[in-house]
Amino acid sequence: EYSFGHDDYQEVKRYSENVVNIYENNNFPVDKYYSVSGAYLAIAFTCLGDHETALRVFNYLLSRSDIYNYFDDKVWTLTFLAFAESNVAVGKYAMAEEYCHKLELLVNDKFAKNKLLNFLANNEYGYAFLCHGEYQKSIPYFEKALDISMSIKNGYQQQTSVLTNLGLSYYYSSEFAKSLECLTKCRQIYD
How far is CA 175 from the centre of its chain? Predict the structure, then answer.
């Protein structure tokens, strides 16, 4: 299983910027390549931690139906996921929750059998609630993500991520025994 790193996201960003610039500098009409490159550009900014720029690009894309009409279900899924993550990073929790809800509906409708997308959707939704201080609301999403992560082949990274998040939710909900149990399981995976 391949894991993207910083250099990979820089490459996606560079490629997407080039496509967008070619289209804009030559007044080419909007088509699938332009719109998907714009989405991947915003996603790359999210993955690189430049959340303000990512949100500007996302808001531009989502304001133009001539652009987003070319998005397929996979592009929408990645866009909703990254848009939610960037909103959490800048403290816009209500917006993050709105896009997590859209992400959840899309994944349940189109990708019910895709374990990784289901894991990501549930973990991100739980994370939005966790960051917003709605710890009890986050727990069912993290528990579902944990169940899914157990069925992902070599899903150790997903398991440790969600166990940490779930442990924090339990801790801030004053459920210290459950928090300790999650964090102990996480440590056991690393050992």
Answer: 27
CA atoms of 57 and 150, how far apart (whole Å): 35
The set of residues, in sequence order, having a beta carbon less than 8 Å from that of 66 and lying 6+ positions away, is 30
pTM as predicted: 0.79
**Which 3-state string (H, E, C) describes 8-44?**
HHHHHHHHHHHHHHHHHHCCCCCCHHHHHHHHHHHHH
Rounded Cα distance, 130 and 63, in Å: 29
Q: What are phi and psi of 160, to 5 degrees?
A: -65, -35
Per-residue pLDDT of the chain (191 residues; tens, 9 = 90+): 335 567 888 888 899 999 999 999 998 988 888 889 999 999 999 989 999 999 999 999 889 888 888 888 888 888 888 999 899 899 998 899 899 999 888 888 888 888 888 898 999 999 999 998 999 999 999 999 999 999 988 888 899 999 999 999 999 999 999 999 999 999 998 87
Task: Tell whether the torsion through CA atoms of 168, 170, 173 and 176 is positive or negative.
Answer: negative
> b/e string for 24-54 if b means 16 or more Cβ within 10 A?
eeeeeeeeeebbbbbbbbbbbbbbeebbebb
DSSP readout, 61-117? HHT-HHHHTT--HHHHHHHHHHHHHHHHHTT-HHHHHHHHHHHHHHHHHH-TT-HHH
